[in-house]
Amino acid sequence: MDGPERQPGWGRWQRPRPTAREQRQDVVLMVLVLVLSAGMTLLTNSMGMFVFGSAPSLAEQFAWIPALTVPLAWRRRFPLAVLAVLGVVFIAAQVRHVGDSIMPSVALFLAIYSAGAWSRHRVRARWTRVAVIVAMFVWLGIGLVAYAVSPAELPQAAGPLDPLVATVLHQVVFNLLFFLSAYFFGELAWRSARSRAELASQAEQLRASQEQNARGAIIAERVRIARDLHDVVAHHVSVMGIQASAARRVLDRDHELAGSALRTVEETARTAISELRGLLGVLRSEPDTGEDHEASPGLAQLPDLVAATRSAGLDVRYGEYGEPRPVPDSVAMTAYRVAQEALTNVVRHSGARSAELRVRFLENSLEIEVTDDGHGGSPSSGFGLIGMRERTAVHDGEFEAGPRRDGGFLVRASLPAPRHAEAAIP
C-alpha cells in the first residue's frame, strides 16, 4: 500500500474517499446526464441529423443510454474503473453509429476528469487517462481515414482550405482541447484538494501548538505562583516560629524581651499578610483594569529583610558593592526572593550564628551572595534550592549553592543586568 501512513509526506498524499453526501451527488448527476441523453436522442432522431449519416433503431439507441451514463454514479468511488468502462462503451456506441454524440462525450469528459481528481493511485490515474485518450485518437484516426477514402460531397464548402484538410484539422484541434481540458481540470481539482488538506493539517497543527503553549504557560504560571507563595510563607513563618519560641522560653523571666519577640511576630505576620494580599491581588486582577496593587519587593527591601532576619536571632551583615544602579523590576524581585529564601534556609537548617548578604553591581550582571558559618548543610528536598535555581534560570542567569571550604554554606545567583538596559527601565 502506498498510503500516507507508509510513506509520509504530501508527495504521497491520497485523497480521502468520497463521503456519503458526495456519492448521493454522483447519483443525482448520473440521473441528470441520463435524462439529458434521452432528450438529446429524441431530438436527434426527430431532426434526422445523425452524426454518421444513419443510426440504428430508436430502441437500440435508448439501450445505449444507461450503458453510457449509469457508471457515472460511481465516478468518485471507482474513478479508474468507470473511465475504462465508459471508454470501451463510448467506442462501441460509435461503432454502432449511435445518433447523439454530445451527451456520450459529456459522460466521457466527466469520467476523465474524475479519474484525475479522485484516483488515489496517481501513476495509474495518469496512464489510464493517457491510454483512454490515445485510444480515442486512434479511433478518430480510423474515422478520418475512412472519410478520406470516401469523402462526402460538401457543395457549400467555400473556404481557402481543402475540405478534407479542414475536416482533419477541425477534428484534431477540437478533440485535443476536449481531452486535454478534461485531463487538466481533473489534475487541478486533485491539487486543489491536496492544498486544502495541507491547510487543514497546518491549521490543526497550529491549534494543537497553541493548546500546548497555553498548557505550558499555565504550568509555568503555577510554578511561579508556587515559588512566590513558598518564598513569602516560608520566610515569615520561620521568623515567627523562632520569635514565638523565644517568647515562650523567656515569658516567665523577662517580660520585656518576650514582648519584643511577640511584637516581631506580629510585625512579621502583618508583613506576610501584606505580601500575600499583593500576590493574590495580582492574580485576581485583569490586564489593563487600572487596579493598583502593592509593588513586588525588590532591592530596596533587602535592608528590611536583613532586619527581619536579625530579629530571628541571626547576626546578618549586609553590604552593597559596585556602583548601585536601577535594574529591571523582574530582576530586582528575583534577587530579593533568592536572598529571602537563602536567609530562610540559614535560619531553619544551618545552625549558623552569623550570615552575610552581599549585593554586587557588576558590569553586566547583578550578583546576590549569601554565606553563613553554619555546619554547611542545606535542605536536600523541598522547593528552596529548586525555586532559587528556577528563578535564576528564567533570566538566563547562573546559580551556585553548596558548602564552603572553610565551613558554612554559600548561595550565589548572577542575574544579567547590563548597564545599557537602564534606559529601558520605566
Automatic annotation (TrEMBL):
Ranges of residues in domain Histidine kinase/HSP90-like ATPase: 334-418
GO molecular function: ATP binding; phosphorelay sensor kinase activity; protein dimerization activity
Enzyme Commission no: 2.7.13.3
Reactions catalysed according to its record: ATP + protein L-histidine = ADP + protein N-phospho-L-histidine
Transmembrane segments: 27-44, 50-71, 78-95, 101-118, 130-148, 168-186
One GO cellular component term noted in the UniProt record for this chain: membrane
Start and end residues of each DUF7134 domain: 25-188
Enzyme class: transferase
Keywords: ATP-binding, Kinase, Membrane, Nucleotide-binding, Phosphoprotein, Transferase, Transmembrane, Transmembrane helix, Two-component regulatory system
Ranges for domain Signal transduction histidine kinase subgroup 3 dimerisation and phosphoacceptor: 221-286
Name of the protein in question: histidine kinase
